[in-house]
Amino acid sequence: MGKFLIKASYTADGTKGLLKEGGSKRKKAVEKMVAGHGGKVEAFYYAFGEYDVFAIIELPDTVTAAALALAINASGMVTNTMTVLMTPADVDKATKKTVNYRAPGR
């Protein structure tokens, strides 16, 4: 299972839907969607600023994450970005890998 950070912003129509349903019902809708794909919502927060929602979700794989992101964006009510999250142990493993890379111009 992988963890993903969702940053989402409502469109004007999406905001109207949020005003109609309320924040708790939208959170439950997201939890149902994620659970339906074998995942779970670890954290879900509304915010002021560039993004309206921040969520951390757990999903079986990146293909599932991409499918959810596509469906959310295709609704036209919300735009979202997903970021893959890694544990410190994952980074430890990455630092042990040898990468043969040549910087541009060198």
Describe this structure in words.
The protein is α+β, with helices and mostly antiparallel strands. It has a single domain, classed as Lrp/AsnC effector binding domain/regulation of amino acid metabolism (RAM) domain (Alpha-Beta Plaits, 2-Layer Sandwich). The chain is built from four helices and four strands, in the order E-H-H-E-E-H-E-H. The longest helix has 13 residues. The chain starts with a strand and ends in an 11-residue tail after the last helix. The model has no long low-confidence stretch (mean pLDDT 95).
Descriptive tags:
106 residues, Alpha-Beta Plaits, 42% helix, 4 helices, alpha+beta, single chain, four-stranded antiparallel β-sheet
How helical, in percent, are the residues?
A: 40-55%
Q: What integer value in Å does the Rg equal?
A: 17 Å
Largest sheet: 4 strands, antiparallel
| Fold-level CATH name | Alpha-Beta Plaits
Strands across the major sheet, in which order? 2-3-1-4
Overall pLDDT level: 95
Report strand %.
25-35%
CATH architecture: 2-Layer Sandwich
CATH class: Alpha Beta
CA-CA gap between termini? 39 Å
Tally of DSSP helical segments: 4
Low-confidence stretches: none
Give the CATH superfamily.
Lrp/AsnC effector binding domain/regulation of amino acid metabolism (RAM) domain
Order of helices and strands: EHHEEHEH
Total E-strand runs: 4
How many domains? The number is: 1
User: Structural class of the helix and strand makeup?
Assistant: alpha+beta
Q: So what's the overall shape?
A: elongated
